Amino acid sequence: MKPTARPALIALALAAAALTAGCGSAASSGPGPTGPVPPAGAPFLATSLVTPAGTWAIAVMGGSVSSHNNFWQLFARPAGSTIWKLVTPPGVADNGGLVAASARAGSLITGIRPSQYLTYTPLALTHDGGQAWSPTGPLDAALAATPDALAAAPGTGRLLALLTSGAVKAAAPGYTRWTTLTSQRSLAVTPAGRRCGLTGLTAVTVTPAGVPLLAGRCSRPGTAGIFAAANGTWQAAGPALPAGLDHQPATVLRLTRASHGVVALLETGSGPGASLLAAWSVGDGVRWALSPPIRLRGAKLASASFGPDGTAALVLTHGRADTITGAGAAWRSLPALPAGTATLAPGPAGGFDALAVHRTRLTVWQLGPGAAGWRATQAMNVPVQFGSSG
Amino acid sequence: MPGMRSGVNIDDPTVVAAFKAALLHQGLIALLIFALLGLAWVSVRAWAPFARNGAAEVAGTPAPVQAEPAGRQVLRVGFGLLWVFDGILQAQPKMAIGLPSQVLQPIAAASPRWVQHLVNWAGTSWSYHPMQAGASAVWIQAGIGIWMLVAARGAWSRLAGLASVGWGLVVWVFGESFGGIFAPGLTWLFGAPGAVLLYCVAGGLIALPERSWRTPRLGRLTLGGLGLFLIGMAVLQAWPGRGFWQGQLHGQPGTLAGMVQNMATTSQPHVLSAWVNAFGTFTAAHGFAVNLFAVAALTATGLAFLSGRPGLIRPALIFFTVLCLADWVLIEDFGFFGGLGTDPNSMIPFALLAAAGYLALTRVPVPEAEPAAARAPVSWRERVRPASLRQAVMTASFQSVASIGAVGIIVLGAAPMAAAQANPVADTILAQAINGSSAPLNIPAPAFSLTDQHGRTVTLASLRGKVVLLTFLDDTCTVDCPLIAQEFRAAGQMLGAQAWHVGLVAINYNPIYTQVSYIQAFDRQEGLATVPNWLFLTGTRAQLGQVWRAYGAAPAEILPAGSMIGHGDYAFVIDQKGHLRRELGFDTGPGTQATKSSFAAELTDAARQLLGRS
Questions:
Q1: Exposure on the CB side of residue A36, measured as CA atoms within 13 A
Q2: pLDDT score, position A88
Q3: Which end of chain A is more exposed for a tag (fewer CB within 10 A), N or C?
Q4: What pLDDT, in 10s, does the model give residues B332-343?
């Protein structure tokens, strides 16, 4: 095993030294990093979420995916703090990606997507902002490579998991006995699935009222593939697309719970003509309010994240970022993002934090409310163990 | 092509030493074969006086002595020497491990997928048993060569030709990927259609009845066929769009210049690389002229050979021989320099074939009247009568005895190869090459009391009476541990009925994911959940740490930033009385199919040794 080899020990010592030297280091207002964006080939998993314990962000760091030197990291900024900490759950190689979901009583559950010879998904739970992790589960299959592949019911803690196979599993806390809720194939043959022309599932969530929602990709134009469990069946629950977009097929890229309802991100069309729409549902996940569409104009979505109030923040390629606060509001472009920005997170005093990565270095840039530009506030070196998964 | 690499370095000292030892061992057996045959032959001739004068004298008539046709002799001696030389090249120390990855794979890389699959299958088989395969190739090729050299006439000689055809086809298909005929960039200048195909052609000609050589027809056909082939190659060389007309393409060397310059970079004496490099530079600067010359030379030679007119063929043959030699030196770079050369490529065989064709056309042996007694037909029943057989043995010629010796050498190579190919398990030497061999132990194994995948308590004492193969596995490991688990599973299968007397035991090496649910998930992942003698044990972090320490296993390291647990790879063999008997290095290294199988074989051997002693 390579980690015990001499070079690995040296790397560990250097990395530990770098961590103690770099973690929580002084803010800098110098020029932004100019390194490459996160490794090519990594799945669309970079995001952030907010729980009562604080704000969490997921980003991939390190080197190439093909040589298994990409390592996904979980960062946390405890509630009331302005400092981000590295809180990646230990004990499993996470080259396959991390998916996190808010669980009961302010805790966070993380699924570590399998990679290489591992085929099942270890789960880890933290109740203290990521300082300590308890293994739970596991999920005996590979979690889907989507940021909304895990969702916990707010009251019961019942966990939904979307698998790469398209199956949706559910388990009560403890998460060792999983039952199949449905699958893409089963859902596709329901009346709601047929109306959508469902070709894939992309997200699971649970409404504040505890209703499971599934989202996916529809081949039939004008239909947003969101499905709600009702009376033992799955009912179409997605919003109707506005005129002008209703002739295009739509994919639900994100679907997650906000403090008072559910928020979704939809993509219509494809290629340079694709557009994104945010959608909010208060309470039941059936009645929706849609944002105006935002045209991608050749850019690609790198990350989407949501604040507790439903504010959506998008990181697009070419340093572009857009945000929208809710139904009835308009999309607002943010100043050009610092190079290497992996995801945006709500800032500690409003505004946004941009988490930019360059190999093993994380730089946090802040955009205060009404500020004209990004300001580096924190930098840390992450002790990535290159070669440990090779 | 995943099966091409065994995962062991091609110059691994363990494998190289074992390969040399195998060659030495088999070489001594080969010498013994010849010595015994020679002794028997001399003894028989000494005891049976009539045997000294041969069968013809026994029959009362002097045997007619007719010279072997010159063309046939050129082929037989020339290709015999080539086979021997190829056998010597196969004895290079790096060949045993290196042939699949350094020779077969690069040659097949440009060929279509189906060719790659075929070659990959052969390379994988070789990788599983590199010692036997490497040594076999040496002895089969040396044996065919010796056979062709010593058997000048008659059935033995013709059989040697057939052996050349048979083995040549094997080498042409698997070793040369059909000579690259399905790959783009095919050119006569670089060896198309594969040197060994010419060995097959030569073998086929040698296998023909000798009467075929007693008319000019065979020479005409041989040269005609060669001429047609050369014209075809000229057309291919001249074909637009294949990059042969350009010395440079978009600032890069053209097809021919690129090939030549690549050859110059292989390791070889400086003077040779200087020649090749100079020719590469010349080709890059004058690509059109060089290709024009090649096309014209091939066309003209081909037409001359097709004409069937000796007066035209003779100067063409001289030109062709010079062309072949120039190509051999300046383009093919002698064929065997750099990397792991397996033969001197195609130009010498081409020149030999053309020369043989010319001699067959122009020097037809004069038929001689043979005495009727010598030509009297003998039925096969008479030949197999004891008296006839005894007489045949008594009057055996040196050629027959030496041919039997050569066949013995071929069998010496082929038999272990055939036996090895029937065994789907790789040699344990691959595992030993990666981790070294283990020293025998005989100390009490540290006791443990842990929980198995079913939640039951298992102690070492409860396994008394069984051989225990023990390892440490991280239940969420993404790399080595699943491979090791597969080796244990394979070892259980290889043990067959003996598996009932063997416990396959793993102890959790992950200090965080210690729950039974995780080792159950690992078992399902690895297909071990239904293996009856498999136990995956876990416990609290403290319990596990105690066992790791007791067995001298490095403590598991909790590495930061999304890394797996850092730990070593170990395997222990515990006997029926609870004594540690071996500690195996068990780093799976690259974890190829061959090494996996090799590790499993090593475990199986260790268990069987202990079961055999009980």
A1: 10
A2: 96
A3: C
A4: 888 777 667 888
Residues in B closer than 8 angstroms to A23, CB to CB, are none
- Interface A-B, measured as beta-carbon pairs within 8 A, has a size of 123
Distance, in Å, from the CA atom of B228 to the CA atom of B122, rounded to the nearest integer, reads 33
Interface predicted TM-score (ipTM) of this complex, two decimals? 0.85
User: Do residue B513 and residue A93 have CB atoms under 8 angstroms apart?
Assistant: no
Q: Please give the Cα distance from B382 to B386 (Å, whole number).
A: 9
Task: Inspect the interface and report whether the beta carbons of A388 and B566 lie closer than 8 Å.
Answer: yes
Q: Quick one: DSSP state of residue B171?
A: I
Task: Band the pLDDT of A37: cuts 50, 70, 90.
Answer: very low
Chain A partners within 8 Å of B569 (Cβ) = 1
Q: Which residue of B has its CA nearest to A175?
A: B517
CB–CB of B350/B324 below 8 Å?
Answer: yes
Let me know: does B264 contact B284? Beta carbons within 8 Å: no
DSSP letter, residue A143? B
Give residue-wise pLDDT tens across range A184-215.
Answer: 999 999 999 999 999 999 999 999 888 999 99
What is residue A71's predicted lDDT score, i.e. its pLDDT?
Answer: 93
Report the distance separating Cα A166 and Cα A149, nearest Å.
10
DSSP strands (E only) in B153-239: none
Cα–Cα distance list, A222 to A238, A244, A286, A306 (Å): 10, 9, 16, 24
Q: Quick check: B512 and A115 CB within 8 A? A: no
DSSP symbols for A176-190:
-S-EEEEEHHHHHTS
How many CB atoms sit inside 10 A of residue B159's CB? 16
Phi and psi at residue B305, to the nearest 5°: -65, -35
Place of tokens 């540290």: B446
Interface test with chain A among B474, B479, B517, B563, by most A beta carbons within 10 Å: B563
Phi, psi of B188 (to 5 degrees): -60, -35
pLDDT in tens, B91-143: 888 888 888 877 887 788 888 888 888 888 888 778 778 888 888 899 999 99
C-alpha of B476 from chain center:
39
pLDDT at residue B295, as a whole number: 94
CA angle B142, B143, B144 (to 5 degrees): 95
End-to-end, the C-alpha distance of chain B in Å comes to 44
Beta-carbon neighbour count of residue B11 at 10 Å? 11
Among B524, B563, B569, select the one facing A388 at the smallest CB separation: B563
- The C-alpha atoms of residue B59 and residue B375 are separated, in whole angstroms, by 11
| Residue B287 pLDDT > 50 | yes
| A323 DSSP β-pair partners | A313, A332
d(CA A237, CA A260): 17
Length of chain A: 390
